[in-house]
């Protein structure tokens, strides 16, 4: 009995434990309740500040979120075809290094007019503007005002951007290259249109998060592309513009973005502020200043975008024609096009960012015949706004693109993919790498891009049906409804409709104008002075987080079900043979839209270019011979990084860091690449002739530089080693031949000058 009793604690021990536990929970509850109350007041005060910030932003003549000093260079209002855009020069920051050299290539950052105001490209120090300034480049910014000029069109905006580029070029006559242009989201396709119209003005073009091929997308994802079909086409766009008295409210576009992620819109964004009220206010208010800065588009602008891009998908198939009859064909662009997209972007996913390549090109030969260089980079998970806003992306991707813009500019025609890796301490020639990352480039093909885009002819038929039905519905609306809507709409009714938009109300309903707001502000000030944050291990705080996770999971589940329903309804309706027949699509196997094809003028140009190249196979010198040798050895791998580029640049001039003709080097590289594609054997056979104009020492030094470049960064493949030895033998033979020729020439000269001395020298020998 005693042993059994020894295994049981007295009753009062358990009671004491329960009482102690109850006291702990009571203390935790009190601490959490105090913290939760304080966070609620702080949250309400931040929301008050958000409302005040919104009101101040509206009263600004040129609202923006650009975080750099600037001066206006050109106002679009003064152009022959006025627009609400402008070109600004970014000024050096106080205390920053001296102004960049005038020989540095200027950068131009262009912001999207997709519902929000300008400035996202220079929203913070780690941004596209910051990367350009940090690399020592002059930097310009193209922004816009909230209200368009009367009658302003998309073509007017494109022509304005052309004028801005002309001005930048005029301001930098000694630049080492044409301006590099970084265009975000909607600004990307706008800049591509400008570059197709005036290709000679542009250096490398970086389009970040830019949708160009709007019909493309992955099954089960990217539901935004179905919106046009589910709403019956673009007639609703016309209705919204008519109700706005000729202006389209950008808040509708922002609302579409927010609807894509309800867990963040309805809960996550606000909960994050509430849960981190002590530290999140500055970041939250900074972003909300941009997010709530709604702008307007003219009805003709928005209708053009929806009909020709969102639904019509006409840019990626070269169907757009200007008012002067000029076809906007992206294949006319001669500058490298860098496409930066992300797998986590549900607004501009990789298929839409890259689909124009498969829309325009059937194979690699077509890419090469148009002498076009396309480089793409895909981020693993960053969201759409993170492409422009995220500090990690600004420090990594944008900085690497900027630091290596010359490397990108000299790439021969073709398709490439970039990868960015950490720089290792044990990396050979690490001193040639600027920053903490190394950018490498791999050769890719149209087929590689096609695997990302996942081209689907049946899906294209559905979107083609949407396009046709949209035209029908728009025509019916304009004929029978639009006259009545325009009759009833007044400027006052348009302003009232804009003021009651749910997104605007969310900013306006709580600000210092509210009588209760000042009381909240006073309490918030006192709380900050006596703040009592709860411990991180508080069980009630952990339950709060668990509840938030449950809400987010439920909203995500609802979003997935909703998006799946959208896709299923779209496929059922527009996959119906009856609907497709109603839309005028034939039942045969012909594609819904044909490939744009190649014009007779282009075929003639290609034939003439081939003849010119054949005539140049035996032309050139030491630089051309070295480039051919480099391409010959590297043809197996199709990969290089920035270290090899810096070494390759020294082929032209060993002290290229102090003086380097980038244009000359770019022309030489691209020309020799074309020659080797035309006739590899003939180009290699001609190398001794190209070396004949150099001395033996010059040839041997260049051969040593070639060998160092090829073996110092990474081990060679067996076939590369064989090719390198072959090239070294050619260079060595050429050097030896030049030395023999030099000796013979000296002997001949000596004989002519003093025959007796030559005979005496010969007998001694």
Task: Give a written overview of the molecule.
By secondary structure, this protein is of the alpha/beta class. The protein is 56% helix and 9% strand. The protein has an eleven-stranded mixed β-sheet, with helices on both faces. Strand 3 (107-110), helix 3 and strand 4 (139-144) form a beta-alpha-beta unit. Helix 2 (11-59) runs parallel beside helix 10 and helix 32 crosses helix 33. Mean pLDDT is 89; it is low at 1-6 and 654-658.
Overall radius of gyration: 33 Å
Spatial order of strands in the largest sheet? 1-2-4-3-5-6-9-10-11-12-13
The best one-word shape is: globular
Number of helices: 33
In percent, how helical is the residue content?
55-70%
Query: Strand content of the residues, in percent?
Result: 5-15%
Count every beta strand, where a strand is a DSSP E run of 2 or more residues: 13
Mean pLDDT: 89
pLDDT < 50 stretches: 1-6, 654-658
- Helix/strand-derived category reads alpha/beta
Distance between the first and last residues' Cα: 124 Å
- Characterize the main sheet: 11 strands, mixed
């Amino acid at each position: 009995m005693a042993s059994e009793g020894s295994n049981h604690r007295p009753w009062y021990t358990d009671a004491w434990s329960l009482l102690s536990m109850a006291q702990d929970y009571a203390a935790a509850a009190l601490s959490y309740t105090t913290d939760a109350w304080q966070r609620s007041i702080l949250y309400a005060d931040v929301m008050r500040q958000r409302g005040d910030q919104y009101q101040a932003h509206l009263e600004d003549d040129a609202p923006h979120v650009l975080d750099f000093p600037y001066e206006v260079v050109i106002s679009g209002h003064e152009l022959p075809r006025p627009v609400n855009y402008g070109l600004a020069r970014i000024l050096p920051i106080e205390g920053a290094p001296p102004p960049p050299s005038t020989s540095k290539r200027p950068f131009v950052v262009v912001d999207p007019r997709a519902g929000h105001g300008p400035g996202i490209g220079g929203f913070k120090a780690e941004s596209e503007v910051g990367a350009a300034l940090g690399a020592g480049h002059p930097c310009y910014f193209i922004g816009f005002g909230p209200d368009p000029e009367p009658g302003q069109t998309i073509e007017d905006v494109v022509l304005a951007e052309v004028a801005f580029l002309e001005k930048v070029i005029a301001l930098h006559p000694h630049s080492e290259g044409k301006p590099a242009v970084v265009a975000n989201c909607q600004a990307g396709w706008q800049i591509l249109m400008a570059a197709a119209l005036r290709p000679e003005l542009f250096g490398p073009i970086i389009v970040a998060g830019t949708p160009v091929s709007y019909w493309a997308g992955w099954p089960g994802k990217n539901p935004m592309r179905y919106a046009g079909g589910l709403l019956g086409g673009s007639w609703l766009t016309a209705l919204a513009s008519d109700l706005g008295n000729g202006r389209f409210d950008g808040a509708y576009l922002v609302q579409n973005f927010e609807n894509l992620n309800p867990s963040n819109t309805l809960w996550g964004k606000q909960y994050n502020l509430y849960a981190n009220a002590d530290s999140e206010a500055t970041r939250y208010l900074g972003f909300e200043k941009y997010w709530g800065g709604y702008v307007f588009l003219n009805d003709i602008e928005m209708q053009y975008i929806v009909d020709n891009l969102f639904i019509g998908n006409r840019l990626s198939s070269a169907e757009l024609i200007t008012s002067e009859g000029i076809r906007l064909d992206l294949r006319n662009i001669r500058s490298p096009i860098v496409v930066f997209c992300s797998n986590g972007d549900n607004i501009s996913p990789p298929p839409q960012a890259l689909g124009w390549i498969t829309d325009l090109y059937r194979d690699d030969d077509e890419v090469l015949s148009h002498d076009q260089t396309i480089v793409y980079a895909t981020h693993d998970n960053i969201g759409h706004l993170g492409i422009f806003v995220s500090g990690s992306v600004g420090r990594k991707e944008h900085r690497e693109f900027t630091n290596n813009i010359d490397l990108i500019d000299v790439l021969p025609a073709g398709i490439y993919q970039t990868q960015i890796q950490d720089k290792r301490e044990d990396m050979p020639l690490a001193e040639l790498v600027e920053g903490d990352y190394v950018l490498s480039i791999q050769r890719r093909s149209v087929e590689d891009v096609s695997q990302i885009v996942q081209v689907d002819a049946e899906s294209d038929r559905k979107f083609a049906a949407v396009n046709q039905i949209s035209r029908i519905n728009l025509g019916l609306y304009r004929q029978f409804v639009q006259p009545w809507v325009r009759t009833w709409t007044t400027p006052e009714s348009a302003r009232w409709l804009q003021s009651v938009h749910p997104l605007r109300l969310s900013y306006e309903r709580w600000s210092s104008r509210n009588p209760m707001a000042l009381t909240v502000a006073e309490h918030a000030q006192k709380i900050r002075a006596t703040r009592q944050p709860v411990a991180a291990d508080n069980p009630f705080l952990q339950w709060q987080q668990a509840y938030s996770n449950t809400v987010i999971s439920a909203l995500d589940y609802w979003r997935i079900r909703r998006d799946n329903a959208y896709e299923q309804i779209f496929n059922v309706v527009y996959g119906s043979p009856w609907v497709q027949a109603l839309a005028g699509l034939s039942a045969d196997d012909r594609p819904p839209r044909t490939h744009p094809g190649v014009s007779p003028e282009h075929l003639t140009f290609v034939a003439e270019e081939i003849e010119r190249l054949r005539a140049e196979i035996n032309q050139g010198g030491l630089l051309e011979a070295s480039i051919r040798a480099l391409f010959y050895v590297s043809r197996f791998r199709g990969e290089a990084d920035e270290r090899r580029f810096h070494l390759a640049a020294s082929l032209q001039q060993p002290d290229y860091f102090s003086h380097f003709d980038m244009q000359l080097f770019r022309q030489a590289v691209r020309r020799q690449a074309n020659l080797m594609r035309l006739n590899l054997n003939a180009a290699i056979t001609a190398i001794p002739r190209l070396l004949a104009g150099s001395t033996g020492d010059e040839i041997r030094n260049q051969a040593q530089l070639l060998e160092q470049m090829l073996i110092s960064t990474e081990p060679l493949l067996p076939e590369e080693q064989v090719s390198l030895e072959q090239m070294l033998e050619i260079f060595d033979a050429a050097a030896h031949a030049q030395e023999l020729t030099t000796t013979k020439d000296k002997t001949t000269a000596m004989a002519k000058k003093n025959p007796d001395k030559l005979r005496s020298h010969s007998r001694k020998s």
